[in-house]
Amino acid sequence: MRRWVSKIERALGKRRNLASELDEEIDAHLRFMIEENLERGMAPEEARAAARRQFGNMAVVRERTYESWQFPRFETFLQDLRYALRGMAKAPAFSLLVILTLAVGIGANTAIFSFVNAVLLRPLPYPYADRLEILWSGLGYSGRAPFSSFELFELRRRSTQFDQLAGTWVTNGALPGEGPAEQIKVADVTSNFLPLLCSRVVLGRFFGAEEDVENAPSTIILTHGVWARRFGSDPTIIGRSVRFGRHRSTVIGVLPADFRLIFPDDASVPPNVEVFESIPVGPWQPDGPSFLHVVGRLRNGATLAAALSEMDSAAAQINKLGGRASLGNFTVSVIPLQTDTVREVRPTLLCLFGGVGLVLLIGCANVANLLMARARRRLRETTIRAALGASRGRLARQFLTESLVLGVLGSLAALAVGYAAIHAILAARPPSFVNFDHVPLDARVLGFTFAVALGISALFGLAPVLSIRRIDLTRDLRESCRQSAGSRRPWTAALVSAEVALAFVLLTCTGLLMRTFINILHADPGFRAGNVFTFRVSVPGYAPLHLLQQKLAALPGVQSASAISHLPLDDAGNWYDYYYREGASAAEQTSVMADHRSTLPGYFTAVGATLLEGRDFTDSDDARHQHIAIIDDVLARQLWPGQSSIGQKINLSDSPPGFYQFQRDWAVVVGVVHHVQYHSLTAIVRPQIYVPYPLAPRPSMSFVLRTSGTDSSLAAEVRNTVSAVSKDIPITHVEPMQVLVDRAHSESRFASLLAILLSLIALVLATSGIYAVLSYSVAQRTTEIGIRMAIGAPRAQVLRMILADAFVWIVPGVLAGALLCLAVTPLLAHLLYGVQPTNLANYAAMLLGIIVVSALAAFLPARRAMKIDPLTALRYE
Amino acid sequence: MSTVEHLLDNEKLGLLQGTLEVLILQSLKLEANHAYGISQFLQQQSDHEFLVDNGSLYPALQRLLQRKWIAGQWKTSPNGRRARYYSLTPAGRKELLRATSKWQRFTVAMAKILAPEG
Fold this sequence. Notes:
The complex is a heterodimer. By secondary structure, chain A is an alpha+beta fold.
């Protein structure tokens, strides 16, 4: 202990005294020796020289004695650190280049890893999140259908593996309370749904047994947001009866501020639900509609496999019960909620993660090359230090310290880049990321960043160390004096080839994603969004809706006005069911599902959809007349392949008595319309069936106005018109239809943009790598080139020689890249549309691109070589 | 002639590093001495078998100082030169006794093994 204390004292304070004392001591030592030499009869000069010789290497004596005062390793480290910082300050351009390369390479990884961490690695913010499962009904061809209340009831009765099975359905509704009418998302939930996903209420209580009976008095639970926004965070809200749409409802609870719904995209359970109301579950309607999205919590200790086999047998039993499920093969799939939620985002994220990984590798190759080039430039210094007695370990430690310093500075800069990138990505994020707005730079992200930075800087550190491993004093001193090179550097060549290969892979993937984006831009959505203006209203019935349609159609600049229950590409809670033709077998009756749309006459004209056959609805198509429907060509082909569907009878569910009072009904098909892309621009998710509004009234409808364009005051006129019809009609989503289309493009735009950005970075890094290495090689070969030219080599030949040098690296790189592409591009298949991963045109274009860009990078130093003046070059030494 | 420095480069660094320190302690047993004097003493006493390298001597002196086995003091030598004289401390004397008996056992054992059989 005391030794340590004295060491620290010496290390910190007394160092200078000790050093001068040592010098004095050595001086005395020498004088003793000189005196003895003089006594032996040497001349003074001779005596002094001999004494110095006898004493030995004074620097080594000092160095070793200093070491005995120090914590040698730590002090050496500090010394190396100082040396490294000094070196960096002396070569600011070099240091900045390395740090920037690391910042971009690692920063991109930090950003994407933050998303991987937030989206894929962190559990959902729900109690027992690892035991939460989502259930899908296998009815319908997507295999991801919701359940009917009857089915949920029967599943619950048979389940032992689940603690809870809860259901929800999200619809549009009115904002509760007094004040201007506003349309919001309302979730109908079973009484156990909220306690399953939320550990507590802020005020009041969750739904309970009293809500679980048919025709219970209406009660609602508010989100924290709506409680604050509409009720001023009134703490006495519980138990109060408030206006809710056209009814009144009692507020029984308020949810915590951090509660949010996180569900798979296709469940139509968006995160912006603001009010919850309870729906009872019971065996009342065996052939009732499917609308409930079901989540369950496994009981403690239950396994997914056990739950699956239990649900299989339950489904088989329910099939025998009668009701709609018995018509087909009712099956149930059980998927962990988290897995299912990130189903859409996962491939995009993983591809991005791969992309930034490639950028980082290219950056690493560049930095390694830079450091190796510098190590070679410092060969003379290194060799001299080795000759003066520096051990290889000491030199290696110093190189390692230098690269660690660069690594640490690089990773700090990378954190800044990553932080900025996260915010940029969040701002540009597509709808599939909408659930993930909280992307923290947590310990795991910081750990990841520093681990990557330190790992790769240790690797870089090794590159120059490897080069000093082979120091041969005599040869290197000679060589470094002569400044000649000509020695092949296999590592450099391999690194440049690798950069070219990786950049080629990134370019090819980017090409595919860009092609996809262009294809999506040009995809026919089945409607024409240009000059179409839309908004959503909650209207109590047909009469005011009809009146509104007439008034809107009369507005100046409006060519046609109509309304539909769901706009294409909208986020409204979807409604779909089974449809079958007359004479369909039992199995056929549950094999075709279609989106159910309620419309006013004139919708197809207004939205720009193509009526292929038959007629549109008219104002006289109502419940009193023949029940009719219009179907799209996809449904027509499924139900009546090879024949006309006009005049055919179709079994559907409609609700002439009122909102959602569904009943099965036969209707005659009067028209066939070209399929409209409702859910995405690229995939046909389900066919559509259109029913006149009087047969299927909905509380919420979207108006579609086709205009002559350019009228910016339309929004105001629309609001005036609506409030002239009734002050109580909430109006939302007032926007041009193009906004919906743009939103649908955003996923692909996002992926392409990021890919383009990554490719550009990769290209810049790879070409600067080629440029730097070739410039260095030209500089090294100046003398050789000068001699060649002096003995008559034409300039063109010099140019060819240097370019050939570059292509020796580039060609293997491109070949390796092409092979890598064959392995990598199929991983993108999920993200592509209208283009094959192995698309030859794309390969060819990117091949040409990388060769041209690399050739340009090589041309600049080659031209410099060509311009070398032989006389100057020969004098260069 | 072997040098302590060469021996120090050997693998048995710990043991042999200790050796030089024991020799220094022994050289100070009778009287205080300066670094040059110590190296002269060791060379003469070993019949010039040991050539003490200053690169080993000075760090060894520092280690002994740090362990408080010797103490250093600036004095004027008989021929009027100022020099740093090292002397044994009581702890150093004790250490010398301990090390000496250890070395004796060690050399006796070595001699037994290496002695020509007869």
